[in-house]
Design brief:
The chain is mainly beta and about 120 residues long. It contains no helices and eleven strands. Strands 2, 4, 5, 6, 9, 10 and 11 form a seven-stranded mixed beta sheet that branches. A four-stranded antiparallel beta sheet has the order 1-3-8-7, with no helix packed on it. Strand 5 and strand 6 form a beta hairpin. The termini are far apart.
Length: about 120
């Protein structure tokens, strides 16, 4: 019933920007904290950014100053604005929330940064 759909990924040159979106349904969006994770081939899934119900944010050291997480409660959507992209940002990006003890994940969107 809970559905999370990521979009906005693609192939981009290093140094450029990309904005990911995650549209949520089946939950009261505004009542939950939201997160972006990413997973590169052969690597563990890692937390990239988080945003609380009150709008507070937290970021992984590797993306600090380059990525911005935001939310639009009226649209039930969480965003990840990615700037100054690096090849090491290449991964599948997932949005996530935790409802009580259960984690919910989208299908993911591929981000590939060349050069």
């Amino acid at each position: 019933q809970v559905q999370l759909v990521e979009s906005g990924g693609g192939l981009v040159q290093a140094g450029r920007s990309l904005r990911l979106s995650c549209a949520a349904s089946g939950i009261i969006f505004s009542a939950y904290a939201w997160h972006w994770y990413r997973q590169a081939p052969g690597k563990q899934r890692e937390l990239v950014a988080a945003i609380t119900t009150g709008g507070g944010t937290n970021y992984a050291d590797s993306v600090m100053g380059r990525f911005t997480i935001s939310r639009d409660n009226a649209k039930d959507t969480v965003y990840l604005q990615m700037a100054s992209l690096k090849p090491e940002d290449t991964a599948v990006y997932y949005c996530n929330t935790r409802k009580w003890t259960l984690n919910y994940w989208g299908q993911g969107t591929q981000v590939t940064v060349s050069s």
